[in-house]
Every structure is written in C-alpha cells, then in structure tokens.
C-alpha cells in the first residue's frame, strides 16, 4: 500500500493571449496553482486549478497551511475518502469558491496519480463512454469584438469542423440581435450558436431578451442570471423555449440537484475546478444524466476533454486555449472534434521546466519529506 510522503505547491500567473471581455468583467489573468503529490512507491500525480485574476494566493495558502498536511501518510488510492475528509476539515469555509478551487488542485493530482498507476487515461479510468467529443469555440466571441470579426471567427470555426461558436451577449438588445442575426445568416442553420450573458441580467431583463434571442435558434442561453437566483432561473426556464445553461459558478453537487429538481436549467456546465475536482464533477455529470440533461463543462478544455469523454451525457468541449505555454503539446483536434489523450494520467503533457520558470515569486512550497 502506497503512502503520500510529499506535496509540492506553486503558482503560475498566465496572461490571456487575446482580450477577453464579457458582460460583467475582463479576463486579465489566469492564476494557476499547481499541486504535485508524491507517494513512497515512486508514483506522482499533478493537479491544478485556476482563477481569473484574484484569489490565487489564498488558494495556495489554504492548501499549504491546512489541506496538504492532511495528505501526508494517506493512501492516495482512497480519493473519495480524502476528498470528504478535506471538505470536513474546511467545513467552516465550504461550500465556497476558494475552498472548492483548492480541493480541485488536490483531487486532480490524486486522479492523475491513480490513472498513471493504473496505466490508463482519464477518460477510460473515469468511465470510458467515448474517445472524442464535439468542440465549440468561445475565443472569437467576446463582447468587445465587433460584428464583422465575430462573423469571421464563426466562419473559420465552421470551416475547421467545429460544431458551434459561442458569443457573449449583454450589449443593448438591438445590438445583441443584430450581432446574432449576422452570425446566423453567415453560418446557416446547421451550425450551433451559443450565447452567454455571464450572470448580467435581472429576471425581467433575461425573460425580455429571451424573446428576442429565440428566433435565432441558439443552442443555449448561458448564465442569464446570478447563479444564486434559483427562483429566477425557474421563472425564466418556464418562460422561454431556449435551453437555459448553468454551472460554471455553482460550487456544489447539491446545488445542481436543486436546479435539476426544480426544472431551472436544461444544460449543466459544471466546471471541474469550481465544483472541487474530478470526484464531485463526475457526481454532477451522473446526476444530470439521471435527469436526461447533458453536461457541457466550462473552460479548462485540456482537462475537460477527458471528463466529457468519460460520461455518456458529455456533449461539448469549450475551446479556449490557455495552457499552451505550460505544455509540450496542445489539445488534439481531429475533424473539429476534441480527442481524449490515450496516455496514462489526466492527458496533459506538462512542461515542468516552463512551470518552474514561471513560478510566482520563484517559490515552491514543500510539505512532508524534502
């Protein structure tokens, strides 16, 4: 039986390759905390998490001071037990963003270690439903991008074989409609358009706008309201024919259960980092499957491709490249589809020299054996 004898924690701060603006914020930085877990049998697992500009240092401190010490001496195979124990150890700050993001870094490291020991890739170890998934792009759909460029990006995505393109909404209604109309007319009826409001609207505004968006046959209406407004999502879902998508800002499987039970959404977008790791992500995916609802996760395409391919109801992977500078090779794409890696582990070929070189403050925290 293996035992964890060392944990290493560091953080890299990545700047977006392109300007990314939505209805409520700008994506100025991806703080990326890393956790490496070493066992006494020589096995190693690497996990990570992210923020979009704030909270990264708090995540690192939570891991270093409170979570990583709890791992020393534990059997890394007992992932479920470890996740529950760490959640209880931080119960005064759970469920919440910082705690969930910290749990993800540890949980993904444990899953990476498990897959490597088993000699299997994540999509097989976690379920093995398929080996590739449909891909849509968000990278050319940010709110600041003007209509001609929006259309051009969607056409390029279609030509590349992608199945869809997402655009941000939240400009004055007539502008949103004109932009949607231009994209739909350019790509035709056999290409999906997703729209994303990033929690910007009140209930009345979301319902009013839905009537204007409906004629363009969008694949889903994402985060129209603040994630905590369950009642508003219930009212909106009953008032529109558009599928309502939620999840990137939901931090607990129990909250997804409430949305699904109350018929407040039609698409689940659980983010593996924000829900606390692979362990709870799989629960959310299977919960959605029980309600005949697909899961289309938010961001982190390099990790989510394995998870989407692990479960039967995994439908889409979101294309937003961000980790290229830290990896030896990027996401594998064939005929516009994201292909899960066949290599043991999470399927991410980390460039550890680049990660070490880009450490914030040039520092790695070591817990346990040096």
UniProtKB/TrEMBL annotation:
Regions annotated as coiled coil: none
Cofactor: Mg(2+)
Keyword Magnesium among UniProt keywords: yes
Pfam families: MR_MLE_C, MR_MLE_N
Domain Mandelate racemase/muconate lactonizing enzyme C-terminal: 148-243
GO MF annotation list: hydro-lyase activity; magnesium ion binding
A biological process from GO: carbohydrate catabolic process
Keywords, in A-Z order: Magnesium, Metal-binding
Stored PANTHER family: ENOLASE SUPERFAMILY, MANDELATE RACEMASE, MITOCHONDRIAL ENOLASE SUPERFAMILY MEMBER 1
Protein name (database record): L-alanine-DL-glutamate epimerase-like enolase superfamily enzyme
Organism: Prosthecomicrobium pneumaticum
Organism ancestry: Bacteria, Pseudomonadati, Pseudomonadota, Alphaproteobacteria, Hyphomicrobiales
């Amino acid at each position: 039986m293996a035992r964890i004898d060392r944990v290493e924690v560091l953080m890299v701060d990545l700047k977006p390759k392109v300007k990314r603006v939505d209805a409520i914020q700008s994506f100025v930085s991806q703080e990326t905390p890393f956790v490496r877990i070493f066992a006494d049998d020589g096995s190693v697992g690497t996990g990570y998490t992210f923020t979009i500009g704030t909270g990264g240092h708090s995540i690192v401190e939570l891991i270093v001071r409170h979570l990583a010490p709890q791992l020393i001496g534990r059997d890394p195979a007992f992932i479920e037990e470890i996740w529950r124990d760490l959640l209880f150890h931080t119960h005064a700050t759970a469920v919440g963003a910082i705690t969930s993001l910290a749990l993800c870094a540890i949980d993904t490291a444990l899953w990476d270690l498990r897959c490597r020991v088993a000699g299997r890739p994540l999509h097989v170890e976690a379920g093995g439903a398929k080996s590739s998934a449909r891909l849509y792009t968000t990278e050319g759909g940010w709110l600041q991008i003007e209509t001609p460029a929006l259309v051009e990006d969607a056409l390029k995505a279609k030509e590349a074989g992608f199945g869809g393109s997402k655009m941000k909404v939240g400009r004055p209604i007539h502008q949103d409609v004109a932009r949607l109309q231009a994209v739909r007319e350019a790509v035709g009826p056999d290409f999906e358009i997703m729209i994303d409001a990033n929690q910007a609207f009140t209930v009345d505004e979301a319902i009013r706008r839905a009537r204007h968006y409906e004629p363009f046959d969008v694949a889903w209406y994402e985060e129209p309201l603040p994630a905590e407004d369950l009642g508003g999502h219930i009212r909106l879902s009953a008032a529109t024919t558009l599928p309502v998508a939620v999840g990137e800002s939901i931090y607990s499987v129990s909250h997804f259960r409430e949305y699904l039970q109350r018929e407040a959404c039609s698409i689940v977008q659980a983010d593996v980092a924000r829900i606390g790791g692979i362990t709870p992500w799989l629960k959310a995916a299977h919960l959605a499957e029980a309600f005949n609802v697909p899961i289309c996760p938010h961001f982190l395409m390099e990790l989510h491709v394995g998870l989407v391919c692990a479960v039967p109801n995994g439908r889409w992977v979101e294309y937003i490249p961000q980790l290229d500078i830290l990896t030896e090779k990027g996401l594998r794409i064939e005929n516009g589809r994201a292909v899960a890696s066949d290599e043991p582990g999470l399927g991410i070929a980390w460039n550890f020299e680049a990660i070490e070189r880009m450490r914030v403050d040039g520092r790695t925290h070591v817990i346990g054996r040096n």
